[in-house]
Specification:
5-stranded mixed beta sheet; FAD/NAD(P)-binding domain; 2 domains; alpha/beta; 5-stranded parallel beta sheet
Length: 514
């Protein structure tokens, strides 16, 4: 640590001190879970000036959720007056602000604090968290809640730096750019492109959509709630709870298709596939275009798209779907593998995020200075997606293999944060300096994941953001949401190395070699 750096010790009662990185759904859930456990000495560090995480960053036109709002909300704050069945970006962000205010989480948040990295001091049982600007914080427990979808991914295409027009990623939207009368290229056909393309297609003169592979698209049964419906739900909140339960178990049925369960999975897959085919035939009359938009992989291998406007937009005369690939970007446009140069005024990257680079760009060092980035260079893994051997008192919210192919990530986050809050309580009540998952337990758990993954659609041969470059699934859970809930009901102390505070203090008193 630099001699001039400030050091702030957050823990007056050391075993209760927690630092959380990020104030999106994961960070706010973590704060609430600690409050419920009676732990108030925690701080949430947020690099921006507002809460919200991915919903603060992604402000592109049409940004919305593909999980119904009655389930895409906290169980401790479920009865929110959503305007539509599926929440839009601005409304979800307002919901998070509402949660932060109502549950007194704002008083725990330090805005404008970007974390560069953290180092574990085994002798003192503390994490030293390094902030941009030189400040250093100390805490017994460190929780990363930065998520999987926070670092925009720009494709590695020859000549990107030569383009003279405007270019930006969907997560860094330029709201000052006027699309009217412009010729625009969109690279990517993932969930963000599916939402933004129909919006900007209404304004542009010409739109070229560069597609690496098409996605399975099913109808999105979205609409505003009628006034009488909202009044009824407000009067009888149990109706909201019933709908939340219905949505949960509907997703569990869909998960049976992703997990290739023989009976329920076959039914769910048939329903999804038929709805996708009907939508495509109704909205795309041109046979050649329909063929271009038909995936050659199993449904669910990539994230299934929800949209009522996507197919219809791609069938419009001023929209071109280019599937031949990109040779290079020039000063004036994009040269395709078909040999044609398409001159454009702007390029938009709807290419998602570096989802397999967990916690990047932070540098986390555990026991003996071991780098977590080095540890995960061949693919991230963690016990229950939360804890890593060699990194005591470090927990990850929305970590490896906790994403969902179908379901609400909010449910998964709440299971994780309750589990972590129980671990923090154990540290305090048992006088522990640290707990660290056993390496054999971690390896056994992840061997189970990879074995089960081979029985899912995630390894059906397609390229998706669920997988690393060598094809390993490090992102997505391979079971039911309810199963994950059972596994994370409470920490099993037999799975951890426990170091009493007295032992750590005695070790710290031993003379150290120069």
């Amino acid at each position: 640590m630099d001699a001039g750096a400030k050091r702030v010790t957050l823990n007056k009662a050391a075993s209760q001190s927690v630092v959380i990185i990020g104030s999106g759904f994961g960070g706010l859930s973590m704060g609430h879970s600690l409050q419920q456990a009676g732990i108030e000495s925690f701080t949430i560090l947020e690099k921006a000036q507002d809460v919200g995480g991915v919903w603060r960053e992604n402000t592109y036109p049409g940004a919305a959720c593909d999980v119904p709002s009655h389930l895409y909300s906290f169980s401790f704050e479920p009865h929110y007056p959503w305007s539509c069945r599926y929440g839009k970006q601005a409304e979800i962000l307002d919901y998070l602000r509402h949660v932060a205010r109502k549950h007194d989480l704002l008083s725990h948040i330090r805005f404008g604090c970007e974390v560069l990295g953290a180092d574990y001091d085994a002798a003192r049982g503390l994490w030293r968290i390094r902030l941009k600007g030189g400040e250093t914080l100390e805490a017994n427990m460190l929780v990363s809640a930065v998520g999987q979808l926070h670092q925009p991914q720009i494709p590695q295409i020859k000549g990107l730096e030569n383009f003279q027009g405007r270019s930006f990623h969907s997560a860094r939207w330029d709201h000052g750019y006027d699309f009217k009368g412009k010729t625009v290229a969109v690279i990517g056909t993932g969930p963000s492109a599916v939402q933004l393309v129909p919006e900007i297609a209404r304004e542009v003169k010409q739109l070229h959509l560069f597609q690496r592979s098409p996605g399975w698209c099913v109808p999105k049964f979205d609409r505003p709630y009628r006034r009488w419906e909202r009044k009824l739900i407000e009067t009888f909140p149990v109706l909201h709870d019933i709908d939340r339960t219905r949505i949960f178990w509907t997703f569990e049925l869909l998960n049976s298709a992703l997990l290739r369960k023989p009976v329920l999975g076959t039914v769910a897959k048939a329903i999804l596939r038929s709805s996708a085919e009907v939508l495509k035939h109704l909205q795309v009359r041109n046979r050649a275009l329909r063929k271009k938009l038909t995936p050659d992989y199993t449904m669910g291998c990539k994230r299934t798209l929800l949209s009522n406007e996507w197919m219809r937009t791609l069938a419009q005369p001023h929209v071109e779907v280019v599937s031949e690939g990109i040779r290079e970007v020039t000063a004036s446009g994009i040269l395709g593998e078909d040999g044609r140069l398409r001159e454009v005024d702007a390029i938009i990257y709807g290419t998602g995020f570096t989802s397999t680079e967990f916690l990047a760009p932070m540098e986390i060092h555990g026991l003996n200075g071991r780098s977590l980035r080095e540890r995960w260079k061949n693919g991230a893994e963690a016990y229950l997606g939360m804890s890593v051997s060699g990194f005591p008192n470090l927990f990850v919210v929305y970590g490896p293999n906790t994403n969902l192919g179908a379901g609400s990530i909010i449910y998964m986050l709440e299971q994780q944060t309750r589990y972590i809050a129980q671990a923090a309580t154990l540290l305090r009540e048992r006088g522990l300096a640290s707990l660290e998952v056993r390496v054999d337990v971690q390896h056994e758990f992840n061997a189970m994941l990879q074995k089960r993954n081979k029985q899912t659609v995630f390894e059906a041969g397609c390229h998706s953001w669920y997988l690393t470059a060598d094809g390993r699934n490090t992102n997505t859970w391979v079971g039911y949401m309810s199963e994950y809930g059972r596994l994370t009901r409470q920490p099993n102390l037999a799975h951890y190395h426990l170091v009493p505070a007295a032992v750590a203090a005695a070790d710290a008193a031993l003379p150290r070699a120069a």
